[in-house]
Amino acid sequence: MNETEHLRDQLQLRIDQFLIEHESILARIAPDLSTFSTYSQKFLSGGKRFRAIFAYWGWHGVRASDPSVILDEPAARDIILGVGAALEIFHAAALVHDDILDNSDTRRGEPAIHRRFEALSAEANWRGDHSTFGRGAAILFGDMLLSWSDELMYNTLAALPRENDAAARAEYQNMRTDVTAGQYLDVLEESAWFGHSDEELITRARQILTYKSAKYSVEVPLALGASVAGGSETQLAALRAYGLSVGTAFQLRDDILGVFGDARVTGKPSGDDLREGKRTLLVALTRRELPEAERARFDAQIGNPDLSDQEILALQTLMHETGAVAALETIIAESVATGRAVLDEAGLGEEATAALDALALKMSSRTA
Question: Which cofactor does it need (predicted)?
Fold first, then answer.
């Protein structure tokens, strides 16, 4: 078992421990809250754990750069595992809310949380509209996960020296603001894109991917882990540059998968982003290359929930024919190359440098 696999196992144990502790708290309030415990344990089981892994390698790289540090010190490792677990709980909350905003039916091949609550209401034949109950319950469920992520993060960071604690808290708090702002811009763009020039749409799409995903998925977890370890300004600057580049590649790959991904692998229907009306960079680049006469039809299709499989296929073909997919692949490759080059200037330990180099390639070429 390599270090990353071992880390995933340890993170799962830490998350399970935290959720079990809170299961008893919920049980004391009311038996009906057992659903929150069941859903949280299932929803937080498994996953790629990218954010926690990046936090770990940011921490590991900084510690390994100091020859006087004992890398396997249990107390220090316990702190970064707590930070990683908190990041994963935060991410789960973001996914719950994201699925509500996007009206998504599935997540990782299973019913989305709001659909699970909807089914719970329908099966019990409760009064009222089942879908309304599902959305409301899921919002509260996501809020509960957010509060738990804060609790675990701040309790964990309290064990650090004051300077490291303050730096890490600032990273986490900024991340919370960034991802919420990015989510709003994403929702806004689905309705407010009209009337902007093609270049403005491209700029706006880049801004959304930066704040909704790139910073939150890679840059901030790395900086957070490095701050926990007391990283220098040079190390943090290099990790941020790497993180933003690789995070951009990660989100652009996600945008491609949202249009072309295999549902059996991604757990979501192929073309789902097109039906949801996601105004991604891929959509903006495609639109820019279309003749004026074809744009009205294209605009009407993006965001149409009733698009047939044949219409999805036609849009996929169009994205290839306009060169938008090829352009996005070029941006991904350039972003990865930029991120990997920055690692040479980061002043990290050799193991962390090698791990981050491999992660840059993995994040940009994944199929799910």
Answer: Mg(2+)
Distance of CA 327 to the CA centre of its chain: 23
**Cα-to-chain-centroid distance, residue 367:** 15
Structural domain containing residue 75 = 3-365
Q: pLDDT band at residue 1, thresholds of 50, 70 and 90?
A: low
Residues recorded for the chain: 368
pLDDT band, very low/low/confident/very high, at 323 (cuts 50, 70, 90): very high
* DSSP structural state of residue 67: T
Ramachandran sector of residue 72 (left: φ over 0; alpha: ψ -120 to 50; beta: rest): alpha
pLDDT in tens, 77-123: 999 999 999 999 999 999 999 999 988 898 888 999 999 999 999 99
Q: At what angle do helices 350-365 and 324-342 cross, to 10 degrees?
A: 180
Output the pTM of the full model: 0.93
Q: 33, exposed or middle or buried, with CB in 10 Å at 0-12, 13-18, 19+?
A: middle
Q: Measuring CA to CA, which residue among 314, 312, 328 is closest to residue 273? A: 312
Q: Which residues pair with 110 in a beta bridge?
A: 107
What is the C-alpha separation between 254 and 266, in angstroms, rounded?
10
- Compute the C-alpha angle 19/22/27, nearest 5°: 125
**CATH number for position 138:** 1.10.600.10
Report the percent of the chain where pLDDT is more than 90: 85
Q: Look at the chain and report how many structural domains it folds into.
A: 1
- On whether the CB atoms of residues 130 and 122 are closer than 8 A, the answer is yes
